[in-house]
Amino acid sequence: MRWDAQRLDLDDGTTLPGMPSVRGLLRSVEVPEFPGLTFHEVRAKSALNAVPADSGMPFGHTINPYRGCSHACAYCFARGTHQWLELDTGRDFDTQIVVKTNLVDVLRRELARPSWKREHVALGTNTDPYQRAEGRYRLMPGVIGALAGSGTPFSILTKGTLLRRDVPLLAAAARDVPVGLGVSMAIWDEELHAALEPGAPSPRARLDLVRAVADAGLPCGVFLAPVLPGLTDHRAHLDAAIGAIAAAGATGVTVVPLHLRPGAREWFTAWLQREHPQLVPRYRQLYGRGAYVPAEYRRWLADRVAPLLAAHRLDRQAGGEARGAGVPGDDEAAFPAGSLPERREDPAAGLPGAAPARAVAEAADLPEQLTLL
Ligand code: SF4
Questions:
Q1: pTM of the model
Q2: Do 117 and 147 form a contact (C-beta atoms < 8 A)?
């Protein structure tokens, strides 16, 4: 296997001085296969994180194998969480990665509790579970096996093409439990992608991932996100992106404008000032009152996107498998079809808590939905 050379048990990493701010730290290592990254290996006390009931999210629990993310997206909303580790939200977030090495064992114990209700568990809601560290630590196969083995439906949202490694496993899991898969992509311009998502696989590689997932008979919803005002909201850009996503076999698309929360806001604004200073006044106008673009911009984007979705047969009216398109803020806002586990009619396979993706998505609270990307 291509990833075997990066496995933990094949590597003799150099142990570094520990970080007192990281709870449960076993050791910190740098390894030649991942230049520039430091992995802080910890023993986690829990694997399943309960989502507050009033969050509006269509799942009750999440799992985050890693903290920090080597995909290093300038707009990443999760940057702020690194402050809790007394690390900075910029370069440290990209390079100082906390790894829950005992995650699978802890998860198995939690899933075996009689009180576990086998509710939908989401991965990829904070940092990316298929970031580069996963090539070394291989936590996801154990997570997938534990969830499927316990009868727990789950979803994964990622930009990481490493998910391809686990497609056979996911196809097997999908025979046991409902599985939702989501891929996010938005930047079609290679130069812009390299500047804003320097550690993430290219848009074309992510498109190949969508195709591989679809070819395996699995659902794959695409978040066309984040759309960057003045940079990636041109009609030609959106048309090319939506056309390519449709051709790759995505089961649905949701278009999401950029949001700028504290942590990501400072980092992204510094980049904008450096690279596109002419756009700074426009962004001040759009994001001056908060993290989300005003309703007028969302409407404008929805109007722009609607005919493109129809042209590429990704609107709901077009029927078939490709549906679930919409811009948050309008009536069509939804998780893209395929990105959430669908309830099964078979009582043996239907699991408590797995509500239909469409219905749940429509009930989801808009700002909370955006925190996924
Ligand atoms: S946006 Fe997602 S992929 Fe990008 S750095 Fe954040 S968690 Fe990683």
A1: 0.86
A2: no
